[in-house]
Specification:
This protein has 503 residues and is mainly alpha-helical. Helix content is 44%, strand content 1%. The longest helix is centred in the C-terminal third of the chain and has 20 residues, at 357-376. The structure holds heme C (4 copies).
Length: 503
């Protein structure tokens, strides 16, 4: 086919609105795209020039349109399949309400996208600067917090728990994961004024990790089933070494947690809450996400004491992987909650883990005895129903609160789901036990022990508002973390469920 003929067919297809194959742009498409832009777009949008205040513009600049958008979004926008971005109008200062945006055909939209890719790339954007495939759930959650802490919510909407929240002054960000190119977004965040100077946009005093977390979080907005990165599936964890972990444990953990994991290191006497008694935790059964976050990112990452340091910088990923391998190989849980294979003594366990099965069978009972002895002085649980309760009393305004939800089957079921499985940073059952008796797998590691919700004699005297306050804030100086990320409704669902466990 000669070139002239192909061009003729190409423009015929465009005219009919057929050609929708991306990346098949011919010279004629480019000419057609340019014509569309000149005739239908430049009266509102700028395609070149220097960044300018939005108060001098009619519409967002398209100067960097070749770098800014994900192509499928751009096509949807141009063909009229996306909701307005500025719900109060782009020029709200002129009382402009969002008008219907001009619409082009699918083929024209593709030609325009190709045109932008060829003519409106932004050289300031480094391709590959932001790796969204390495975004963990923890980082995204951290980004959501940073987003709020840096006032972003004040001017841009996002989606949380199925609701839009935030001030709709500027562009909506609740679908930003489907809209922006990740590298453009990252570059924008480094210095917004390079794109829209002096127009009410905001320069945040955020560190690079904070900026990356915020951008990562925005890249999850509007993306169903976002695939989070799981650091514990990395190569470092594949080649983790128990013996290297053992050395690290002695050097970095024993000062608080004790050489044999009994929570009795030299620093422990001055700490509230006490360092967890590792000897009583069945590490194999802990969710990796929780274990990784508390060690890599520190206590506050899971709502716990900031006296539990973050180890990512000190130990690196390999060190964190090694020490986790050591914990799993060494500590198997409190003796009363596990079989006789329990190993509370790191020496015995390390021995057991390297010895062949026969020798391990001999080592195990010795370890079990050691565990029994070691746990007798530890915190852990007891069978007494009423627990000594030094928990801080909630402020009066909270004490007066009553559960606003009905104790319906749906509410109880929702509370159960949170309690047993889904509450973040950790399911309540992990500490309070699946029956609510305070004997969860981590319960025995905590001093004071988790509350026993089955004890009606004690629970009947604790008002709803007190429970609400502790769940939201945590119980300072104890292993009870704060669940500040749970909505009020979810906390009330939990309280109905907790009450249903009392006998
Ligand atoms: C009458 C003015 C006007 C015309 C003509 C117009 N636009 Fe727009 N465009 C706007 C406004 C205003 C917005 C902001 C949309 C909103 O408020 O939701 C916008 C938004 C956009 C966006 C998203 C910008 C961003 O990053 O926020 C793109 C892309 C776009 N237009 C492309 C085009 C193209 C291509 C044409 C020509 C086919 C065109 N527009 C014609 C006014 C116009
Ligand atoms: C005081 C209000 C205000 C605050 C606070 C604010 N922004 Fe903005 N933001 C703007 C304005 C104004 C613009 C320019 C775009 C427009 O509306 O014309 C903008 C632009 C943006 C854009 C690019 C939008 C686009 O499509 O061109 C992103 C992304 C963004 N902001 C993210 C953030 C983040 C993240 C934070 C918090 C660190 C933040 N903003 C805080 C007002 C604000
Ligand atoms: C400076 C003292 C200190 C050091 C050093 C320390 N921890 Fe901790 N750790 C704590 C405290 C305190 C807690 C209890 C936090 C709470 O319950 O709020 C804790 C809790 C934990 C928990 C359990 C969290 C839970 O849910 O109860 C794990 C696992 C843990 N630490 C692992 C480690 C590892 C591994 C190291 C060494 C790399 C280490 N810690 C070093 C103080 C320390
Ligand atoms: C890491 C362990 C841990 C997890 C996970 C945990 N708790 Fe606790 N919880 C505790 C400990 C320890 C106490 C005892 C604190 C005290 O005595 O003040 C406690 C106490 C409580 C109390 C008693 C407050 C009072 O005034 O007596 C409530 C209510 C409670 N937890 C609810 C929850 C709920 C709901 C969840 C899940 C959303 C949860 N806990 C998850 C460890 C945990």
């Amino acid at each position: 086919m000669n070139i002239r003929k192909r061009m003729a067919i190409g423009s015929a297809l465009i005219a009919l609105g057929w050609l929708s194959l991306p990346g098949f742009s011919s010279a004629s498409d480019q000419v057609a795209a340019k014509k569309i832009l000149q005739q239908n777009c430049v009266q509102c949008h700028r395609l070149e020039g220097k960044p300018d205040s939005r108060f001098n513009l009619k519409a967002p600049d398209l100067i960097w349109a070749g770098s800014k958008y994900q192509r499928p979004w751009l096509i949807r926008w141009l063909t009229g399949k996306e909701a307005p971005l500025y719900s109060k109008g782009y020029r709200w200062d002129l009382n402009q309400t969002p008008a219907k945006h001009p619409v082009v055909s699918e083929s024209e939209a593709n030609a325009l996208a190709d045109y932008f890719a060829a003519h409106n790339k932004d050289a300031r954007v480094t391709v590959g600067a932001f790796d969204v495939t390495k975004l963990s759930r923890y980082e995204a959650d951290f980004g959501a917090m940073a987003y709020k802490a840096h006032a972003c919510l004040g001017c841009h909407t996002i989606e949380e728990d199925g609701k839009l929240i935030g001030g709709p002054q500027s562009t909506a960000l609740h679908e930003s994961g489907k809209r922006y190119d990740k590298d453009w977004l990252y570059r924008f965040a480094l210095n917004p004024q390079d794109f829209v100077p002096h127009s009410g946009e905001f320069l945040a005093d955020a560190t690079d990790p904070q900026v990356r977390a915020v951008i990562g979080y925005l890249m999850t907005q509007g993306v169903k089933d976002f695939q989070y990165y799981e650091p514990w599936t990395s190569a470092e964890f594949d080649k983790a070494s128990v013996s290297r972990g053992k050395v690290l444990y002695k050097e970095y953990c024993s000062q608080c947690h004790g050489l044999t994991g009994k929570g009795d290191g030299p620093a422990a006497s001055g700490l509230e809450p006490k360092p967890a008694i590792h000897a009583n935790i069945p590490f194999d059964q802990l969710p990796m996400e929780y274990l990784y976050n508390v060690i890599n990112h520190g206590g506050p990452a899971v709502g716990k004491s900031s006296n539990m340091p973050y180890w990512n910088l000190t130990l690196g990923q390999q060190g964190v992987a090694d020490v986790i391998a050591y914990l799993k190989a060494t500590f198997k849980g409190a003796p009363e909650s596990t079989a006789a294979t329990s190993a509370a003594s790191p020496a015995a366990a390390a021995a057991a883990s390297v010895l062949p099965a026969k020798a391990a069978a001999i080592a195990a009972p010795i370890a079990a005895v050691a565990a029994a002895i070691s746990s007798s002085g530890g915190g852990g649980q007891s069978d007494a129903c009423i627990q000594p309760r030094k928990t801080v009393r909630a402020p009066d305004s909270f004490m007066a609160m009553k559960n606003p939800l009905p104790a319906s089957a749906e509410v109880l079921q929702a509370g159960k789901e949170l309690f047993q499985k889904t509450a973040k940073p950790a399911a309540c059952a992990m500490c309070h036990g699946d029956k609510g008796d305070g004997k969860g797998m981590m319960g025995a590691a905590l001093v004071p022990p988790p509350r026993n919700f089955t004890c009606n004699a004690m629970m009947k005297d604790i008002p709803d508002g007190q429970l609400f306050w502790i769940i939201k804030k945590g119980s300072p100086g104890t292993g009870m973390m704060s669940f500040s990320g749970l909505s009020d409704d979810k906390v009330w669902q939990l309280i109905h469920y907790i009450r249903s466990l009392a006998r």
